[in-house]
Specification:
Radius of gyration of chain A: 13 Å
Order of helices and strands of chain B: EEEEEEEEEEE
Helix content of chain B: under 10%
Strand content of chain A: over 45%
Oligomer: heterodimer
Largest interface: A-B, 29 and 22 residues
Helix content of chain A: under 10%
Largest sheet of chain A: 7 strands, mixed
Distance between the termini of chain A: 32 Å
Low-confidence stretches of chain A: none
Shape of chain A: globular
Chain lengths: 112, 113
């Protein structure tokens, strides 16, 4: 089984809908991250969490919220989706004291 | 603001040759720099980390250099193979964020037989 899983893998939704992307990990890592990737813009950090009680905004947090339900679970919500949130979303994890990050397979989100 | 620049143009090389990718940065004093590989539609995969006090790091056919004076890292793949074709991302820690990363936009490498 994959160490970092994301659900759903693909999602098409309409403008104004609320949507949640979920990330789970079995690596036992304490740190989790959400990124989005757009062609020509690269990976950009949305939110990150260093433990269940610690949530931090990244470069592009507007329009998004997160919830760290447990050490192994980190969810990203779009309260009211808009077309420019169409992107590939990645969850990543890392272990405190180690800098390398481990990425999930991604969720391709399309907002029409 | 902190910026990471990687060659936006794709790099095409012949199998067996050495591929060299460049990562330049501004407004950083990074403690370390990382390189990742990303295949189309998949998540990035960690390759190498080099610390500010290291000049060079090697792993099998991969070599990374880190010049904090030039604010540049070079990523080399020796004896390149078609399977090395991918996008390679450079990443630096975000100022005052601990372990969160800023990524460059990546350089696409195509190795032809």
């Amino acid at each position: 089984d994959a160490d970092v899983t994301q659900t759903p893998r693909n999602r098409i939704t309409k403008t104004g809908k609320r949507i949640m992307l979920e990330c789970s990990q079995t690596k036992g890592h304490d740190r989790m991250y959400w990124y989005r990737q757009d062609p020509g813009l690269g990976l950009r950090l949305i939110y990150y969490s260093f433990d269940v009680k610690d949530i931090n905004k990244g470069e592009i947090s507007d329009g998004y919220s997160v919830s760290r339900q447990a050490q192994a679970k980190f969810s990203l919500s779009l309260e009211s989706a808009i077309p420019n949130q169409t992107a590939l979303y990645f969850c990543a994890t890392s272990r405190g004291g180690n800098y390398e990050q481990y990425f999930g397979p991604g969720t391709r989100l399309t907002v029409t | 603001s902190q910026k990471i620049e990687q060659n936006s143009e794709a790099l095409n090389i012949q199998e067996g040759k050495t591929a060299t990718l460049t990562c330049n940065y501004t407004n950083y004093s990074p403690a370390y720099l990382q390189w990742y590989r990303q295949d189309p539609g998949r998540g990035p995969v960690f390759l190498l980390l080099i610390r500010e006090n290291e000049k060079e790091k090697r792993k099998e056919r991969l070599k990374v250099t880190f010049d904090t004076t030039l604010k540049q890292s070079l990523f080399h793949i020796t004896a390149s193979q078609p399977a090395d074709s991918a996008t390679y991302l450079c990443a630096l820690d975000i100022l005052n964020s601990g372990y969160a990363l800023n990524f460059g936009k990546g350089t696409s490498l195509l190795v032809t037989p």
